[in-house]
């Protein structure tokens, strides 16, 4: 059943593009909406369709080697939700119809790429689909062709391609060492090969490539430029899922299933995670552009996830995956806030804004929800995931890292509060009297995401069996 | 400036040819043919097309550039060619002492049966590339 | 990995490392956008050669060729998209000089 997640969208691209020009905007909207909603619904309501024990008719026809477990399910859910939200925001933010259809096509291609990345069981196929997602996001960033967007896209392209080259070199070294490229072959081979010099070089190269793709320090140079310069729906998609799936998820999958998860790897991950958390938080304090600040905040949050991953106890990994999901939700929410602000005001410079909450209540409330969740304030969902990570770090004896995590949480609260004060509350600046609330698509998406955050936070102890 | 760029592209094509011959010596004829035809051919065409779209430096700019920039970069393509020629000497390695293990050797079979996921990936990438060309290469309407 | 294949491995390795260093140098040390693309191409070629070498040394030439063919297709698409971006940059600015394009701060 799971291969359908890849094959059905693929056929729908072909079908979608066969329609005449005039109908295309409606059919593409319907197709994408249906696919993303169906994905969300199926993961939530019928997860047993996805477990890889059932080998039914579809599987035997295509013999797609895939694997689905809990982590993959969470990611599929993320992808479904964020793609749907991006679709809604695209309707509002891209006025030109032809460009919107192009964007939706690219969105569909990246949907397929991300679904397949989550599902495959082979390192090289993983690379292929990461690359597909990356190519579609290069084009999406560069779509409006204004100067900053093109420069951001080019920087992203070069750095991402360098990451690709590193990953490929590592794949070939692993081919040399183990004789195969599927996960099982590679992990068996790496167990046999031990920890010699070549194995370390191979794993190190792959990790460097993944660090570049997830935007961890010191390879985060492309992230603020790409996030802030991209057109708004592309920013939502990028920040919400693309970085997570093609960077962080692959790290989690490989660290758990393929590479032997020993102390040096854990130590490295925790160190890089902690450095990213602090750097992102400090840099976000000094930003005056809304989207750039959100980008640095993303770097910080991804650092949290990696910190949790590096700790390697089951509780920590659970916290990391949960934080990944939460971050996808609330970061998309914040970026849609930024999008609606940008659309109404025409600028993203925070120094020029003030008192918007009187005119844009939905944006104001949902941004408060988003920021509180990022900073980890109860009873929102972000609190639970951060709390679990800190708890896991403490109980594993890594006190320094736990303190760093708590400190960064306070920093997060600080910069977000200052952002809130500047942008949404306070006095209404001159010239902004006649702005309205943004259009329906943005309102719905903000409301949905905020509700998810609040709901998950409130009901979390009841849904998940509390160990 | 432009002749140096074109020289770089030609250097790239020659390096592609050298790499392709090396691949052929490593018992991989299919990959060698692909590498030669695509990288030494198609990609050079793409580069020359891109360069031709971005020409037209006015004479003042040329003068400015010539005065500002010392010719530090002009030796790079020459170094490239020299390295390529130097390593062609290494090429006729007489002995490949590893005995070939009798596994499935024909790459075409492997792509079709074993790795059809990658095939789907290739089709998707080409689709994405087509969208990219449609979006990015359009003349802006003035 | 047997010991007789080791010396071939090292000879080819030197070539590969040389190619990749040259590619990286091109990307970093140039002020022209197109030249950084050429450097990227060189890096990808180095990795291609590495994959084929790995396939040869383990006897898996078919698999390595399949990987290389997929990789070449992806590489072409990346170059086309990069070319599109470069052309758009040129149409906006009339220059390809990175010294003049410093819009965004790192």
What structural keywords apply?
heterotrimer; A: 467 residues; mainly alpha; B: 142 residues; 2 domains; 0% strand; flat
Question: Can you walk me through this structure?
Answer:
- In chain A, helix 7 packs antiparallel against helix 9.
- Chain A contains 18 helices and no strands.
- Chain A starts with a helix and ends with a helix.
- With 467 residues, chain A is mainly alpha-helical.
- Chain A is globular and about 65 Å long.
- Chain A has a domain at 279-467.
- By secondary structure, chain B is mainly alpha-helical.
- Chain B folds into 2 domains: 1-94, no CATH class; 105-142.
- In chain B, helix 1 runs parallel beside helix 4 (75-88).
- Chain B is flat and about 45 Å long.
- The model of chain B is unreliable at 57-61, 66-72 and 92-102 (pLDDT under 50).
- Chain C has 106 residues and is mostly helical.
- Chain C has a single domain (6-93), classed as Helix Hairpins, CATH 1.10.287.3510.
- In chain C, 77% of the residues lie in helices and 0% in strands.
- Chain C is built from 3 helices and no strands.
- Chain C has helices at residues 6-28, 33-58, 61-93.
- The longest helix of chain C has 33 residues, at 61-93.
- At the A-B interface, helix 1, helix 5 and helix 6 of A face helix 6 of B.
Topology order of chain B in helix (H) and strand (E) letters:
HHHHHH
Question: Mean pLDDT of chain B, as a whole number?
Answer: 69
Considering residues with a beta carbon less than 8 A from a beta carbon on another chain, report the largest interface and each chain's count. B-C, 64 and 60 residues
Q: Catalogue the unreliable spans of chain B.
A: 57-61, 66-72, 92-102
* Sheet/helix structural class of chain B: mainly alpha
Span between termini of chain B: 30 Å
Per DSSP, what share of the residues of chain A sits in E-state strands of 2 or more residues? under 5%
Helix content of chain A: over 70%
Radius of gyration of chain A from the CA trace? 21 Å
The major pleated sheet of chain A works out as:
none
Number of strands of chain A: 0
Low-confidence stretches of chain A: 52-64
Domains counted in the coordinates of chain B: how many? Answer: 2
